[in-house]
């Protein structure tokens, strides 16, 4: 039986009911059954094509038996590593302005919605000039890590540090922050600290309560692992110049893309089991990636620390007061206000976790369960975290074509035949000319029938080696003999080894019979003078036969 890799059922071995391990088995029934007959032949008894899960051939490279770098990919990586980069030699406002303008041009004049930087004044000035409508925020982790340097000289440093973290992280409204900041500076006599004064003036750029009104894709930077600095770990450090940063950026980006692809494959190939029987959890299990579903489950389990203090109803609006007695895993209490609109199931919590990170908070989950909501509205299914199929972008199309062309180039140059290379280059040149005609036709608003007739594959530019037909259909190139040692044979199942051994024994018996027959008939052909005649078949294959001298070879 040849069965789908996701057949059968998985059993979670995790002892912690709140920390499940991903499972890949879906009890898929797709399979092919074959039976070995007594005459040594195989008979197909069952074929079931239907899978009960999504299929994605593009992710096949993540399976263990496909983790081999193709020659054209290896060559491309080597070329990227050899390429130099000399972009910026200074880090002033003028240089950053040029840099951001160049970046904007590369992005088709589409500025970013939001941007996070450190406190560099040169970058801030350039961003205000080039991206006037972009939301600019400072890296909170970068600011908080400076506390030992800026406040370490105070005798009550540990108390100051704890108090400042409470003001910055725990304030749920702007008014609450303003009042807490004043009390904080007065209590520890910090009115004359220039660093704190500068931070307060620019508070709208870094304090969480000022920036949580828009989506930041989880870049809360409350700890280093959540900071964008973690993206560059191992590639850049605090002493890296901008020039060096640009040189290392491609390497860091390549690593991140590969990790994202691997995570996408893991989400596609397996999923985390639900830890409750709530329909809401099943809903997010279907649409979230594994990583985001873990975040949701963390909020779902966090609801056990939440109690409803009061419920006020005004028309169709219900306001909940929810007390959470474990904040950040510590014995701290905080009251949150959650409003619920019954007409459209719209929920809003003043912790603003959903607005900031795209994940429903535990307080909102409590309200949904209290209101007997089984399926939440689609607006809470953040599209950036879904694992549904996304429309292929222009960049992805470009990459797919590049891979295809790399494969053709690798095959065409594999045997060192210059003629094959020339034929491929002629074909590419003809294709380039045809595509240019299509572009001109589009610009002239010609009908689609004219566009379709522009692209064709000329039979004069190729031959049978390229496997191009006059119909215009480009077939896969013929496989070329690779240099080097032949690949090892795959491991055979026991049943297949028995069958193979049986066939070999039968062939050996046939050879012995032929040898005995040849010895018996030797006296018949001993007086003949055989000669070798090469006969060329219609398909180009060469067959050698032996005929007696003077006999007809017709």
From TrEMBL:
Bias type Basic and acidic residues, positions: 499-509
PROSITE patterns cross-referenced by the UniProt entry: ZF_SWIM (PS50966)
UniProt-listed Pfam families: FAR1 (PF03101), MULE (PF10551), SWIM (PF04434)
GO CC, any one term: nucleus
Protein name: Protein FAR1-RELATED SEQUENCE
The organism of origin for this protein: Aquilegia coerulea (Rocky mountain columbine)
Keyword Nucleus: yes
PANTHER family xrefs: PROTEIN FAR1-RELATED SEQUENCE (PTHR31669:SF283), PROTEIN FAR1-RELATED SEQUENCE 10-RELATED (PTHR31669)
Highest classification ranks of the organism: Eukaryota, Viridiplantae, Streptophyta, Embryophyta, Tracheophyta
Principal subcellular localization: nucleus
Family classification: Belongs to the FHY3/FAR1 family.
């Amino acid at each position: 039986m040849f069965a789908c890799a996701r057949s059968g059922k998985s059993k979670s071995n995790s002892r912690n009911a709140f920390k499940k391990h991903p499972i890949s088995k879906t009890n898929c029934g797709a399979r092919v059954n074959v039976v070995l007959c007594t005459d040594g032949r195989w008979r197909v008894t069952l074929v079931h094509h239907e899978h009960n899960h999504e299929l994605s051939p593009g992710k096949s490279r993540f399976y263990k038996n496909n983790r081999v770098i193709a020659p054209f990919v290896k060559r491309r990586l080597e070329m990227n590593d050899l390429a130099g980069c000399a972009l910026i030699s200074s880090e002033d406002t003028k240089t950053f302005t040029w840099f951001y303008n160049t970046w904007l041009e590369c992005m088709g004049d589409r500025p970013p919605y939001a941007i996070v930087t450190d406190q560099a004044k040169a970058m801030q000035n350039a961003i205000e000039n080039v991206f006037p409508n972009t939301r600019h925020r400072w890296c909170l982790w970068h600011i908080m890590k400076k506390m030992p340097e800026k406040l370490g000289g105070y005798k009550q440093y540990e108390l100051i540090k704890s108090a400042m973290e409470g003001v910055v992280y725990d304030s749920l409204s702007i008014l609450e922050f303003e009042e807490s900041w004043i009390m904080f500076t007065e209590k520890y006599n910090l009115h004359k600290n220039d660093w704190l004064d500068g931070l307060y003036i620019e508070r709208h750029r870094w304090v969480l309560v000022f920036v949580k009104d828009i989506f930041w894709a989880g870049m809360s930077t409350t700890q280093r692992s959540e900071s964008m600095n973690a993206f560059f770990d191992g590639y850049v450090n605090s002493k890296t110049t901008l020039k060096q940063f640009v040189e290392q950026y491609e390497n860091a980006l390549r690593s991140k893309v590969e990790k994202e692809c691997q995570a996408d494959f893991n989400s596609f190939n397996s999923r985390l089991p639900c830890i409750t029987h709530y329909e809401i959890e099943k809903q997010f299990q279907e649409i979230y990636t594994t990583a985001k579903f873990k975040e949701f489950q963390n909020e779902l389990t966090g609801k056990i620390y939440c109690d409803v203090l009061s419920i006020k109803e005004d028309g169709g609006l219900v306001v909940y007061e929810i007390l959470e007695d474990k904040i950040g895993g510590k014995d701290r209490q905080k009251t949150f206000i959650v409003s619920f609109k019954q007409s459209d199931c719209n929920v809003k919590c003043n912790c603003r976790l959903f607005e900031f990170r795209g994940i429903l908070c535990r307080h909102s989950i409590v309200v949904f369960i209290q209101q007997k909501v089984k399926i939440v509205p689609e607006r809470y299914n953040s599209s950036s975290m879904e694992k549904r199929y996304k429309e292929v972008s222009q960049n992805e199309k470009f990459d797919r074509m590049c891979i295809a062309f790399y494969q053709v180039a690798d095959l065409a140059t594999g045997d060192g035949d210059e003629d094959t290379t020339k034929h491929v280059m002629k074909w590419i040149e003809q294709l380039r000319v045809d595509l240019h005609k299509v572009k001109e036709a589009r610009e002239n608003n010609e009908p689609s029938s004219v566009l379709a007739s522009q692209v064709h594959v000329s039979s004069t530019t190729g031959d049978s080696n390229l496997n191009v037909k006059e119909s215009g259909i480009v077939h896969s190139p013929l496989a070329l003999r690779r240099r080097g040692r032949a690949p090892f044979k795959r491991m055979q199942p026991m049943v297949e080894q028995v069958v193979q051994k049986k066939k070999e024994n039968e062939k050996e018996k046939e050879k012995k019979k032929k040898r005995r027959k040849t010895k018996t008939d030797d006296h018949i052909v001993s007086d003949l003078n055989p000669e070798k005649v090469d006969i060329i078949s219609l398909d180009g294959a060469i067959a050698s036969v032996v005929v007696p001298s003077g006999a007809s070879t017709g």
